[in-house]
Amino acid sequence: MQRERHTDWPLIPGSSLKGILRDACRRKNGDNNELYAVFGPKTEEAGEHAGALSLTDARILAFPVRSLRGVFAWVTCAAVLERLNRDLSLTGTAGLQGIARPEKEKAACNGNDLLVDGNKLVLEEFEFTRTQEGAGSVADWVAGHATEDKPTRDRIRTHLAVLHDDDFTHFVRHAPEVVARVGLNYERKTVKEGALFYEEFLPAETLFYSVVIAEDSRRKGLKEKSVEKNAKETLQYAKDNVPGFLQIGGNETIGKGLCAVRWFPSA
């Protein structure tokens, strides 16, 4: 798990994400000039030109936290949503309106599924007082853009809470899963010396977003290698060839890092 230095929020580096998308397209179509035009050439030919597809880091949008009622809630904050709006402005896409800015120990939440004792939310061991200001529009936007799965959309609309920036940061800093890993001496059935370590994982249902910027192909004038693609065709190539699910990060063979992918276009 990697974190931003200045916020301590989780992220997926853009370099990793682009490599994963490239590999997904390569698995489907093999190595070819079209792939190189979109993502850049092979390492030994890197000096010829750059790729036509650029990606930002995948940034946190909503983080799942245990809830006393409703099983779990997605939490976010004004700082996350304001940054989302700035990133959306790069694509000409309309951002969120009326972002909630609750005080500390308060939560903007639409619906009653998370509430206990009237207007309280209990997330992990902390109690928050519910306010509905600005929660509905945020939950509707996230639900509409994050997934095509209707049950998940419906759940986001009632289980997303906007917290104070500091409360959100506390959860993303201290609420991820921490798993002890050991290496065993098979003959003695004891832990090998120095082989006890801990890994930190993002919980399932974490939501990230990344901005994808397409340009015209730079793989032109290279004789038989030349590929003519405009920016729209570059982006369409990625949409057509990236599968609906990707595996990101390590521990692939034990089911870690499986992510659903959804594209949504600019306005």
Summarize the structure.
This protein has 267 residues and is α+β, with helices and mostly antiparallel strands. It has helices at 14-29, 33-39, 78-89, 135-146, 150-159, 165-174, 231-241; strands spanning 2-3, 10-12, 53-55, 58-66, 72-77, 106-109, 120-123, 126-131, 160-163, 177-185, 190-201, 207-209, 212-214, 245-247, 258-260.
How would you explain this protein's 3D organization?
The radius of gyration is 21 Å and the shape is globular. Helix content is about 30%, strand content about 30%. The chain has seven helices and 15 strands. The mean pLDDT is about 90. The relative contact order is 0.19.
Domain module count = 2
Rg from Cα:
21 Å
Instruction: Give the N-to-C terminal Cα separation.
Output: 33 Å
Q: Provide the structure class.
A: alpha+beta
Q: How is the biggest beta sheet arranged?
A: 9 strands, mixed
Helix segment tally: 7
- Summed over residues and divided by their number, the pLDDT gives a mean of 92
Instruction: Provide the β-strand percentage band.
Output: 25-35%
Order of helices and strands: EEHHEEEHEEEHHEHEEEEHEE
Silhouette: globular
| Low confidence ranges | none
Key attributes of the depicted protein:
267 residues; 15 strands; alpha+beta; two-stranded antiparallel ribbon; 7 helices; 2 domains
